[in-house]
């Protein structure tokens, strides 16, 4: 059961303590407090775990500070959508709003290589009107002899460049708990010129200890990649691990499934699952066309498969796009063959804009039709 408190409830107030005291006396029930920071207000939600079946909803809603009560009906207690659950599906981070209703493009380097490439990329991203990017410093690689990323040594100049170009959020994969501290310390040392969204890669979707560690901090939001060889349900449970530890600022990323049935694409594109994730959970949904398709091949109409896949995802309501770009893809140390060139970014964004407009018109059409039906 979830108790949703009145916006901006003061956690020092006597009413708040009275309510918590009451909850602590309920037999077999544990209360966990979650704070959700929105742009305008702070929302506090109390998750009641354990023997909640016997609790009386009207009694709970009558407690001080409690505004609404939601009875949890599905597995994803915190991130899921439940019956009569109209909790907001959005969060703000470093001035950027993430929700199931909007769309952000994170274009950047798969792997940080040189300061010049980082700076050229940041400039192109900012000139294209974007305020978010991706920059891999810690790269999990299949081959132990392949470039593993510069690690913490590149963080100072990556963050400095981001700040100089007004980039607000960098998606950056972490593969080990120690990386969180390295990122935190480097951001502090640089004077917090930008923000970081921690990325959990597809190889770590079920690394439960890493999930717990990342979930225990609330400084950074998290981008969780779907596991490439497990069910959707298993990946959504991985997201719930983050939330159950305290961090519910989670974005779920579809990045394709590993099967030869997807050949000749690098992975089998799974963007048809966007509406499924939005229906089952309140997480914004990201698509990664670069790692899904994995190359720059184009159809006879001149449009790259990667752009077709992106458009399909955006037309279906995607909320974020993770895209590999590179100033000189032939020199990239990781995933060069799938990177767009910087001069292709405005074309890509215009294509995305067309698809987003189509999605918004489809959404309006559905809402008009359903409203009309309800009137009849
Ligand atoms: C990445 O985005 O750089 C990456 C390695 O992706 P994935 O974990 O989806 O393979
Ligand atoms: Mn990559």
Question: What's the helix and strand layout?
Answer:
Blueprint: E1 2-5, H1 14-24, E2 29-37, E3 42-50, H2 57-61, E4 66-70, E5 90-93, E6 96-99, E7 104-108, H3 115-127, E8 132-134, H4 155-164, E9 169-173, H5 178-189, E10 195-200, H6 208-215, E11 222-225, H7 232-244, E12 250-254, H8 274-280, E13 285-287, H9 289-293, H10 305-315, E14 320-326, E15 340-341, H11 345-375
Parallel strand pairs: 7-14, 8-9, 9-10, 10-11, 11-12, 12-13, 13-14, 14-15
Antiparallel strand pairs: 1-3, 1-4, 2-3, 5-6
Helix pairs in contact: 3-4, 6-7, 10-11
What does this molecule look like?
The protein is an alpha/beta fold and 376 residues long. The chain is globular, with a radius of gyration of 22 Å. Helix 3 runs parallel beside helix 4 and helix 10 (305-315) runs parallel beside helix 11. It is 34% helix and 20% strand. The longest helix is centred in the last third of the chain and has 31 residues, at 345-375. It has eleven helices and 15 strands. The protein starts with a strand and ends with a helix. It has helices at residues 14-24, 57-61, 115-127, 155-164, 178-189, 208-215, 232-244, 274-280, 289-293, 305-315, 345-375; strands at residues 2-5, 29-37, 42-50, 66-70, 90-93, 96-99, 104-108, 132-134, 169-173, 195-200, 222-225, 250-254, 285-287, 320-326, 340-341. The strands form three sheets. Strands 7, 8, 9, 10, 11, 12, 13, 14 and 15 form a nine-stranded parallel β-sheet that branches. The chain has a four-stranded antiparallel β-sheet with strand order 2-3-1-4. It has a two-stranded antiparallel sheet with strand order 5-6. The mean pLDDT is 95. Strand 2 and strand 3 (42-50) form a beta hairpin. The structure holds phosphoenolpyruvate and manganese (II) ion.
